[in-house]
């Protein structure tokens, strides 16, 4: 059985306060994008390790057994004693990009196992399991536009459709440490609240819908800021870094012709329709 975990972008990202536990409260809107990995599971007849993950496509740092896909399998196995499984993961969503690729893989693993193994778990139960794997994993269970707050783990629906807009995503060969990005943040309440701002026409977002991490990341990695400016020069009606980087996306009118972008030989680019 196969599925296709998709990416997300952040529409606005306000870091509002530092919590007593050392984490930060934030506000953002998660929006699904049809940039996808491919995930397949099959029952295994071999002996040895119960869950074997084979990875293809873009290389992922670390050992396969540390992948969130395997952690998702083990999480459900604790409660349901799953059969031995062979898992194949083709990575197309770049890692360290602020696009939620690893979280999406984990959430889709839970959904795929629920169907494949006939576990009959509700969406609410799947969200509970997903939240154990990462703050934003639960978003990908329902996989629809969502306002997130807290540490990115408290969700509420948001009425928003970008259907028909074209999107370009550009990721340079740059890795931004989330810890490093947070270290330079000064929490504050935004002038324009994210949830209210996304209800405005997209053409009004440019000066109002802000990702707080840009102020600290762009000076350290100027190429990321250059990408945002190039997207605007190319006709984007809105452009922003996603998450804490390092990818930047631009939203274009449906009839727009989007040029190719290159910021070095390892630049990742994606173009699609929302």
UniProtKB/TrEMBL annotation:
Keyword Transferase: yes
Keywords annotated in UniProt: ATP-binding, Isoprene biosynthesis, Kinase, Nucleotide-binding, Transferase
Active site: 8, 136
Ligand binding (ATP): 94-104
Residue intervals of the GHMP kinase N-terminal domain: 67-141
EC annotation from Swiss-Prot or TrEMBL: 2.7.1.148
Transcription recorded as keyword: no
InterPro entries named in the record: GHMP_kinase_C_dom (IPR013750), GHMP_kinase_C_sf (IPR036554), GHMP_kinase_N_dom (IPR006204), IspE (IPR004424), Ribosomal_Su5_D2-typ_SF (IPR020568), Ribsml_uS5_D2-typ_fold_subgr (IPR014721)
Reactions catalysed: 4-CDP-2-C-methyl-D-erythritol + ATP = 4-CDP-2-C-methyl-D-erythritol 2-phosphate + ADP + H(+)
Domain GHMP kinase C-terminal stretches: 209-255
Pathway as given in its UniProt record: Isoprenoid biosynthesis; isopentenyl diphosphate biosynthesis via DXP pathway; isopentenyl diphosphate from 1-deoxy-D-xylulose 5-phosphate: step 3/6
Biological process (GO), any one: terpenoid biosynthetic process
SUPFAM superfamilies: GHMP Kinase, C-terminal domain, Ribosomal protein S5 domain 2-like
Tree of life domain: Bacteria
GO molecular function, one term: 4-(cytidine 5'-diphospho)-2-C-methyl-D-erythritol kinase activity
UniProt-listed PANTHER family: 4-DIPHOSPHOCYTIDYL-2-C-METHYL-D-ERYTHRITOL KINASE, CHLOROPLASTIC
Family assignment from sequence similarity: Belongs to the GHMP kinase family. IspE subfamily.
Function: Catalyzes the phosphorylation of the position 2 hydroxy group of 4-diphosphocytidyl-2C-methyl-D-erythritol.
Listed name of the protein: 4-diphosphocytidyl-2-C-methyl-D-erythritol kinase
Species, as recorded: Bacteroides pyogenes
């Amino acid at each position: 059985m196969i599925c296709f975990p998709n990416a997300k972008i952040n529409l606005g990202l306000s870091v509002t306060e530092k919590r007593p536990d050392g984490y930060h409260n934030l506000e953002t809107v998660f929006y699904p994008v049809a940039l996808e990995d491919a995930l397949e599971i099959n029952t295994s007849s071999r002996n040895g390790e119960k869950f074997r993950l084979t990875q293809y496509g873009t290389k992922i740092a670390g050992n396969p057994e540390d992948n969130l896909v395997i952690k998702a399998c083990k999480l459900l196995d604790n409660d349901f004693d799953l059969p031995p499984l062979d898992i194949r993961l083709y990575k197309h969503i770049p890692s360290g990009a602020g696009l939620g690729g690893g979280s999406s893989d984990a959430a889709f693993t839970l959904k795929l196992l629920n169907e494949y193994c006939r576990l009959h778990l509700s969406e609410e139960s799947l969200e509970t399991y997903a939240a154990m794997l990462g703050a934003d994993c639960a978003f990908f269970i329902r996989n629809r536009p969502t306002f997130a707050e807290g540490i990115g783990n408290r969700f509420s629906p948001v009425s928003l459709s970008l259907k028909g807009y074209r999107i370009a995503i550009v990721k340079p060969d740059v890795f931004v440490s989330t810890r490093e990005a947070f270290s330079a943040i000064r929490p504050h309440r935004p002038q324009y609240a994210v949830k209210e701002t996304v209800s405005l026409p997209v053409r009004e977002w440019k000066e109002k819908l802000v990702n707080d991490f840009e102020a600290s990341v762009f000076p350290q990695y100027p190429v990321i800021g250059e990408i945002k400016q190039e997207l605007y020069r190319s006709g984007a009606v809105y452009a922003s870094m996603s998450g804490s980087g390092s990818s930047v996306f631009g939203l274009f009118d449906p009839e727009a012709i989007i040029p190719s972008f290159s910021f070095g030989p390892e630049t990742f680019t994606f173009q699609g329709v929302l």
